[in-house]
Amino acid sequence: MATTEMTSANFTSTISENDIVLVDFWADWCGPCKRFAPVFEKASEANTDIVFGKLDTEAHGDVAGGLGISSIPTIMAFREGVLVFNQAGALNGAQLDQVITAVKELDMEAVHAEVRAAQAGQGGAAAQ
């Protein structure tokens, strides 16, 4: 599967409508982004069960800013709508494969329980 262009218009729906989504935040002027692009593309072809999206931070700064992207490339992985990986800097093929394997092997019941606990803690702290 080729990579998908992610935009301000389709970012949220892409994350929510797919089990696993890896997003490469990049810009045309970014040398490391250009070197990482073939690694990301190759991984997308080898993992057709995952959505691989690319978001141009220059064209869609609202999304990048909202997620706190301050360096590119940044790679984020979402599973069942939850951000489970976030790292700035280009990865090599082996590193990206490790991330993909780890994301696939996550115990999502435990992850969702942690999210619920964190949200309950935030709500409780605000009420005090």
UniProtKB/TrEMBL annotation:
GO terms for cellular component: cytosol
One Pfam family it belongs to: Thioredoxin
Protein keywords? Disulfide bond, Electron transport, Redox-active center, Transport
GO MF, one example? protein-disulfide reductase activity
The record's section on InterPro entries has: Thioredoxin, Thioredoxin-like_sf, Thioredoxin_CS, Thioredoxin_domain
Q: Do the record's keywords include Electron transport?
A: yes
| Residue ranges of domain Thioredoxin in the record | 1-105
Please indicate which superkingdom the organism of origin belongs to: Bacteria
The yes or no answer to whether the keyword Electron transport is present is yes
Cite the PROSITE patterns for this sequence.
THIOREDOXIN_1, THIOREDOXIN_2
| Annotated family | Belongs to the thioredoxin family.
Indicate what this protein is called per its UniProt record: Thioredoxin
Tell me the organism. Answer: Desertihabitans brevis
* Lineage of the organism: Bacteria, Bacillati, Actinomycetota, Actinomycetes, Propionibacteriales
Gene name, Swiss-Prot/TrEMBL: trxA
